[in-house]
Amino acid sequence: MFAASVLSLVAPTTPPKFTLSYRISYRSFVMPTAAEFLAFSNDEHAKGLSALEGRGKAIREKWPIKADRMAYYHWSMKRADNEDKEEMTPISREDLKAMIATMNYNSNIARGKLVTAVERFIVPWLPVGSYQNGGIYCIVLGAHGLQPDQPDPEADRWLISMNVLGVNTNVQPKLPLRSRKANFSGASTKSNESDDSEIAGFVFHQIGTLEYWGDKSENFRSFEDAARGPWLPTGFRAVVRFRRNGAANGVYIIYDFYPKDEGGERRLKVTGDYWGRLPEDRSNQQFSMAKLADTIMELRFCRTFTLTEVLDYPVELVRAAKSPEDAIIRVTIA
């Protein structure tokens, strides 16, 4: 009997309350995933340099538990190391084209992978073909270049990084000077809540610059010739238009009205009439935007292409943002 009493004291049948509470707390703990870390990082990056001072506060608000914050910092350092390695690892031309053609542009993760791929130290260029009016062209890859015509809106919480922008085709900015289209305003002022129509514009992801063969056409005989160049800038940027569901919807070229000088500094907007002409175009057609192909997979040498959906007036570029439905839309429309 005495032994039974002692045993009951050292081995109680009912666990203490603090043990039960501890187990519940332990089992409910869930570490954030890498996908969550990447989405947060992309959202913060999209806010630009102005948000750097508040980055620490944003991290603390997102993950109030210290272990979560430490996991995020560890993930950030590991990601930086991996990006350095990827910078030196070339991606094949066909793999890159397949990525551009099939990815979901609404996905932060997919866009992050594309930017990493086209901004590597070693990156392939993409052949475009021969324009019917003259010239041989290629795309030199990159995720940045075009600039919006309006300053960032005050409510920039959902802004996407500027490798994604929107174009309003029913707005004609005041500069450069040109006869105005009937009923076109000089700037978009209406806040876009749903972007339920693509008739007057669309969103796009930048993929590089359009360049032309700077030598005689008879000296262009092989990929080896193409690799040696010379390739010269046209002033146009290449972009991929995408739908509300994030699917690619055509390759376009858009003229860069804010070119950089030789030192890499951004110039003021072009004001004169010398813009929007392909250097080798025998027709000397002037335009701000045109469709290059239905899909990136069409682009290749030994192909003669035509431009469609050509707009002969300056168009307005605006920032893009996430909609409540998780699609990417233009911030302002006309």
Walkthrough of the structure:
This protein is an alpha+beta fold and 334 residues long. The chain is 27% helix and 22% strand. The chain contains eight helices and 13 strands. The protein has helices at residues 2-10, 17-28, 34-46, 55-62, 66-87, 93-102, 108-118, 223-228, and strands at 126-131, 136-141, 164-168, 190-191, 201-213, 231-242, 248-255, 289-293, 304-305, 308-311, 316-322, 328-330, 332-333. The strands form two sheets. Strands 1, 2, 3, 5, 6, 7, 8, 9, 10, 11 and 12 form an eleven-stranded mixed sheet that branches. The chain has a two-stranded antiparallel sheet with strand order 4-13. A hairpin with a 5-residue loop joins strand 11 (316-322) and strand 12 (328-330).
Write the layout of secondary structure elements.
Blueprint: H1 2-10, H2 17-28, H3 34-46, H4 55-62, H5 66-87, H6 93-102, H7 108-118, E1 126-131, E2 136-141, E3 164-168, E4 190-191, E5 201-213, H8 223-228, E6 231-242, E7 248-255, E8 289-293, E9 304-305, E10 308-311, E11 316-322, E12 328-330, E13 332-333
Parallel strand pairs: 1-9
Antiparallel strand pairs: 1-2, 2-5, 3-5, 3-11, 4-13, 5-6, 6-7, 7-8, 8-10, 11-12
Quickly list its features.
about 25% helix; 13 strands; 11-stranded mixed sheet; alpha+beta
Largest sheet: 11 strands, mixed
Shape: globular
Structural class: alpha+beta
Q: State the helix count.
A: 8
**How many strands in all?**
13
Helix coverage percent: 25-40%
> Could you tell me how far the N terminus lies from the C terminus, measured between alpha carbons in angstroms?
90 Å
